[in-house]
Amino acid sequence: MWLVKPEILKVKKHLIHNRHLLWRAAFGPSTGDVNALKNSTPRSIYHELLQASAGIIKPISVQREPVASGEPIMPGTLPDDALRKLQREEVKVLNLLWLDEMCNGKAQLREKMAFFWHGHFACRNRDPRLHEKLLHVIRTNALENFGTLLKGVSRSAAMVYFLNNNQNRKGHPNENFARELMELFTMGRGYYTEADVQESARAFTGWSTDKAGEFVFRKQLHDQGRKSFLGRQGNFTGDDIIDIILEQPATATFITTKLYRFYVSESPDPAHVDWLSKRFYQSGYNIRSLLEDILLSDWFYHPSIIGNRIKSPVELLAGVRRQFPMAVYEKSSQLMIQRVLGQTLFVPPGVAGWPTGRGWIDGASLLFRLRLPALLSLKKQDAWTTFAAGFAEKERSKIIQALTGYWLQSPSSPSSDSMLHNVNAGDPEDKMIMSVSLNLLSTPEYQMC
Fold first, then answer.
1. How far is residue 8's CA from residue 1's CA, in Å, rounded to a whole number?
2. How far is residue 95's CA from residue 337's CA, in Å, rounded to a whole number?
3. For residues 25 and 300, is the Cβ–Cβ distance under 8 A?
4. Are 234 and 226 in contact (CB under 8 A)?
């Protein structure tokens, strides 16, 4: 005899798995997802995410004020100090525009994948126009083919300038880009030699950009001599080098392992990675197929995987905004949170990108994270009245259970009983929901997904 009806257990299982999927494949559930999470399977949720991320992608760009000539402000139209100040402000605007897309956009699968590539192809540049172009390359190709994405990023003016390939010319090769291409973007250490770095740098001579930030191949600066790379010889170009790198199974393994750490666990399972990387390689580096293999695998929903990842600062901030979209979020607060917690969009600490996992948490950062509700000014009553309408239950204990399940993904969530002790019995329902939610948002468990 069943103590709990099988259909109820099935709904609860789907609910847990769907929340898990939305935290990993997207930036968390929103208030509009509450009913769908109860009534859908992870597979159907995934295909809805995939469909929402299809179609033409509109570039994210800063609206620039025209100068007297009627043209947007460009380098050379302002004194250097004024131009640098303007550029810094525009990068901040671009930051918030993309963050808005992460929080409010329907293409959650694409934006989350683009966020991964933004860290993988970490790039710093003062010119916001170059960031816009690189971001568009990444968002356009985020779910498509890794080889196409890699070549697009390699040609972007932002990456050309950041890794000094504009200084790479025949007779005086600059090895920065060639080295990072192999070490950080594709194969990882141990699969190439210093000679491979030197020879591939020669192949990338002449890769440059024009003043508008468009890729230019300067033939007169290119070394057309014979080169030896990864055991192959020929008059290789930059594209040839990338193609040879893509032929190496180590590239598929490197990318798969990094994606596994991002979507599944900081401790990759060798058997899972081996299976995934072989299929990724055989697919010709189809990113969408790899993502589907990960997100629809049974092991992705194992209890040991659910709630085991520490949210990065951007995931934390975007998650709050998706789960509580009624609030008004101050621009300065969002930028300050990114800066203090160590992950500001478009400003990575270096070419290796941001840390992951436990690298996000220390004593000071955890205390700051637990103050997030106060920092975001989430105590405005009118917003909570709207939010509370989605949690109408007769018994307060059931409301608290629903709120705990909504806000927290960790299996070690605080019990409803402990939350009831922090609630004034005489409080109206919307105030009680606000109090419980703020308590949950201020727990260590909320840092996990």
1. 14
2. 13
3. no
4. yes
For the cut 90, the answer to whether the pLDDT of residue 382 exceeds it is no
pLDDT band, residue 424 (cuts 50/70/90): confident
Task: Give the model's pLDDT for residue 406.
Answer: 87
Percent of the chain with pLDDT over 70: 90
Handedness of CA 437, 441, 443, 449 (dihedral sign): positive
Residue 98 belongs to what H/E stretch? Answer: helix 80-104
Q: Tell me the residue length of the chain.
A: 449
* Residue 208: φ, ψ to 5°: -150, -165
CB 53 within 8 A of CB 140: no
What pLDDT was estimated at residue 121? 98
User: In sequence order, what are the residues at sequence separation of 6 or more whose Cβ sits closer than 8 angstroms to the Cβ of residue 195?
Assistant: 228
- 350: which 2 tokens? 């270096």
Q: Is the model's pLDDT at 7 over the cut of 50?
A: no
Q: Evaluate whether 99 touches 317 at the Cβ level (below 8 Å).
A: yes
Residue 63 has a CB neighbour count (10 Å cut-off) of 8
Phi-psi category of residue 319: left, alpha or beta, with phi > 0 → left and psi -120 to 50 → alpha: alpha
Name the one residue in this structure whose structure tokens are 């994948």. Answer: 113
pTM, full prediction: 0.94
Rounded CA gap, 387 and 377, in Å?
A: 15
Judge residue 70's burial from the number of C-beta atoms within 10 Å of its C-beta, 0-12 exposed, 13-18 middle, 19 or more buried: exposed
Residue 348 has pLDDT above 50, yes or no: yes
pLDDT for res 415:
58
